[in-house]
Design goal:
globular, 13 helices, 305 residues
Length: 305
């Protein structure tokens, strides 16, 4: 199937659904942390997702292989994946879903900044520069203002920001190394295969593996492993192959909006005025960064969109 030149109704629905899934996942992680130590939970999630991915690849006839010619970049992307989720799971143990949602989903901002220096055609100009400034101001505002009192944590906020940088690093690695030559399923295979043992090993330094374990925590872990860590990421890769990258990326501003709503709806989180200000700045920044400049030509076949 050839890549479409614009988003259609089906693509819009799937992207909105994906943004909802990512936001809801933040709530699930926070709840699951009540039964599992965060880093151990991230490790088990990678193990379970790995088995689901292997089954899916066998079912669809995709080659199950960790190619030696991408060994260094494969290990690198796996370690970044592990670090991202160490930071994210710890952050959700310490601070609110609303704050994590706003800060973590600034990943496209940091990817755009890195792309300015390392990606062909990624130079920021005009509205994109303004978007970068606004989104960065939103993050600074969110971290520096703390009307939620004990629900907010400097360590949690900064861990979230570092996790967003790791996520951007993963995307950059996937595009600028030999990993770009392999299937999306094989990229995810590297991330899960490397992160699973690393996370489980590191988790030993973060205290007991289990907390007040209940059925809801097990259900949350299974949801993360299947709906998000495996099929969610595969759906994202599929969307990137079917639709223009800029169109897919433009929906990233929905995730922080949904995260704030879900934190309030499911967890009863207090939403102070700084959250609304930060959310507005970040969302406006993301929209400007993903806006195509005037005169932008569609990518030719075979070009990176």
């Amino acid at each position: 199937m050839s890549k479409k030149d614009k988003l259609d109704f089906a693509g819009v629905i799937m992207l909105v659904g994906f943004a909802l899934l990512l936001a809801f996942n933040q709530v699930v992680i926070k709840i699951t942390n009540g039964g599992f130590q965060p880093v151990f939970s991230a490790g088990i999630r990678s193990v379970l997702a790995l088995f689901v991915l292997l089954g899916w690849m066998r079912l669809t006839g995709k080659p199950i292989v960790l190619s030696r010619h991408v060994l260094r970049s494969g290990i690198g992307i796996g370690l970044l994946f592990a670090l991202e989720f160490v930071l994210l799971f710890i952050a959700l143990d310490l601070t609110t879903v609303s704050r994590v949602g706003i800060i973590f989903y600034t990943m496209p901002v940091w990817l755009a900044l890195a792309g300015h220096f390392y990606l062909p055609g990624g130079r920021l100009q005009g509205a994109s520069v303004l978007g970068l400034v606004l989104a960065t101001a939103g993050v600074i505002w969110a971290i520096g203002n703390r009307s939620e009192g004990q629900q907010a944590s400097w360590v949690g906020d900064l861990a979230t920001l570092a996790a967003a940088w790791c996520w951007a690093g993963i995307a950059l690695t996937a595009r600028t190394t030999r990993l770009a030559q392999i299937l999306p399923e094989q990229q995810l295979l590297w991330q899960l295969a490397v992160s699973a043992p690393v996370l489980l090993l590191v988790s030993a330094g973060f205290g007991p593996a289990l907390r007040d374990l209940q059925e809801i925590h097990i259900a949350g872990l299974l949801f993360q492993s299947t709906a998000v860590a495996c099929f969610g990421f595969l759906a994202w890769f599929w969307l990137l192959k079917q639709y223009p990258t800029s169109g897919v990326a433009s929906f990233s501003f929905l995730s922080p909006v949904f995260a704030v709503i879900m934190g309030w709806l499911f967890l009863g989180e207090q939403i102070g005025p700084e959250i609304y200000i930060a959310l507005g700045l970040v969302c406006l920044g993301l929209i400007l960064i993903n806006k195509k400049p005037a005169g932008h030509r569609p990518a030719e076949a075979g070009e990176d969109d």
